[in-house]
Structures are given as structure tokens and as C-alpha cells.
Amino acid sequence: MKGLKLGMAPKPRASDSSRPHHFPSGKRSLSDDFDFTSKLLAAARLDCLACPWLMASSLQESAAMSEPHQNSLQGMAIMSGAMLILPTMDAIAKYMATFEAMSPGQVTFYRFFFQIACTLPILFGLFGLKALSAKRPWMNLLRGVLHGAASLLFFVAVKYMPLADVFAIYFVEPFMLTALSALFLGDKVGWRRWTAIVVGFGGAMIVIQPSYEIFGLKALLPVACAFLFSLYLFLNRAIGEADSPLTMQTMAGIGGTVFMAAALLVGSSSGNADFSVSLPSSGLGLILLLALGSISGYAHMLVVRAFRLAPLSLLAPFQYFEIISATVLGYALFNDFPSFSKWIGIFIIVASGLFIIWRERLQAQSLKSS
User: Residues in domain EamA (predicted)?
Assistant: First the structure.
């Protein structure tokens, strides 16, 4: 699921890797928020639970990368690779639903379950019970619930819709997050960015319209997913520095697993096919589910490495490489390819998102220079 973008999490002490400081107190400049935002951009869809050995040190180091002579080209290349890999996770979910007859709800549960099963022993071995000692446990668990619900909606969407369509519509998330920041946190958003938000939503409507005629209300699932994930990122800022990134991600992973277990129980009891309970029907299916639980960790390692090499604000636009990868995978595996009108909508969404990144970067640089 989905993308990186104008996310929010604490400016790392041992920094959060899923996207900016105390809430609502504590003075911070827009440039601080932008640096903070950029870090989280890269990890919005990357679950740090999958690579706990990086959480303790690598992310902390990634926050201190302001040297002027970084290997930006290598960082951009690595970031591009990570963004091209991430849609594989969603292609697996679509493959499991299409060819393995596994419900999206079950796939989402396995995604979180295998992450927890693989990482909790390592976390406890390295950090003991500190991994679960949260100062704001319920808020962290709520993050996990929101992440689980967003992932579920995304996987349901890719079951019925082409991958590229889902990704394109999902990329309204940065617009929602920018709007939430302005409305509830008092972030200054000028008329240019508000215009870009409106135009970006217009691009999403161009993609949604033909999909809506075919898939009905299911075409709106990526929008709901984007909204839930923007709330998930919004809570990163609400929690601020109260809890370490390691604790935040561990608790969020547990929250997501518990939520999906409950959702499966309720959904399957009601007879909803998208929540039917099943085991992998083949060895390949089991392998793919295990891969689903680890791909985000591998991609996250690439992102952390990219952050060490290139300025964070420089990496943000590379999120849109996900659309390229999703289009290729959709065509190769499922014979799906966006129509010309959808490409117009995708172009508008991407252009609006890049404009917002550019404007925020300009404003942050202006504040720093002053």
C-alpha cells in the first residue's frame, strides 16, 4: 500500500520510519517539519517491524544526513529501486486473490502475522520487554488498527481493480495529509498548495470515473485507504517523541495483527467472501505469503541506505516510481494496462504531488535562510 509522501513523525531521536515533535506544544519551524516529513515519506508503506536490527541504529543515523557532499546519484538510484520493489507486495496480494482463491482479509492478516512472527523474537532478544514499554500504548495500537484497515482496503481494491489504477487513486493521500495538517495542526498551507490539492483530486476523479462504471463503489476503496493511512501518519505527529520508533512500530504491528484477526472473525461469520478464512492451497502460496511479510523490510533497508547518501527532500519525488512498477506488474501478470484517459489522470496526480513537494521545500529553505 501504499506510497510515501507528506507524512509526519518525530524528528528522530531514534527516528520513526513510517513518516514529524511534541504535539501540540513545542516550537518547531516548517523546515523542521519538512525534514521530518521527508524522512517519513520514504517509509510510509514500509513497515519497520520487518527489519528491527535497523530500527536501533540505522534510522538514528539516517536523521543526521545533512552533509553537502553526499552521493546523491547513488541514493536516488537506491530509492528508485525500493520504490520499484514495493508494488510487488501488492501484486502478491492480487495474485493470491486471483489464482490462489485467498481472500484479501486473509492475505492482510498473514502480512501482519508473518511480520510479527519473524520480528518479535528478534526484538525481545535484542531489547527485551522494552520493545513494548509504550508511554502511549493505546494511541500506538490505534496506529496499528489504522494501518491494518488501510492495508485491508488496499488489498481488497487490488483484487478487483488494476494495480496501476489503485496506486494512482491512492496517491491522493499526500493531499489529504496536507489538508489535515492545515486544519488540525495549524500548518501554513498557501493558496498554491491548496490549488494543487484540488487539481490532484481532479486527476483522481479522472482515474476513478471509468473504474467506477466497471467496479462500482469498490473504485472508491483506494480513496478510503488513502484517508485511513493519512490518519495513521497524522498520529505519528500526535505521539511525537513520547515513544521510541521501535516501540511505535512494534505496537502498531501488534495492533494491526489483532485488528485483522477480529476483522476476519466478524467478516467470515457474516459470509463476506473478502474475509473468508483459508490456508495457502499450495507451496507457492505459502512462499508468496512469507515474501509478502518480508518485502517491506527489504525495501526499507534500501530506503535507509538511500537516506544516508542523498538529501531526504531530494528523494521524495521518487515515490511515484511505484506507479511504473505497478503498471509493469499489472500488465505482465494480469494483462491490465491503463487507458489513455487514466494516464491523463495519473499525470495530473503526480504533477500536483510534485508541486506540493517543491513548494514545501522552497518554503522550508526560505525559513532556514532567514
Answer: 75-208, 220-357
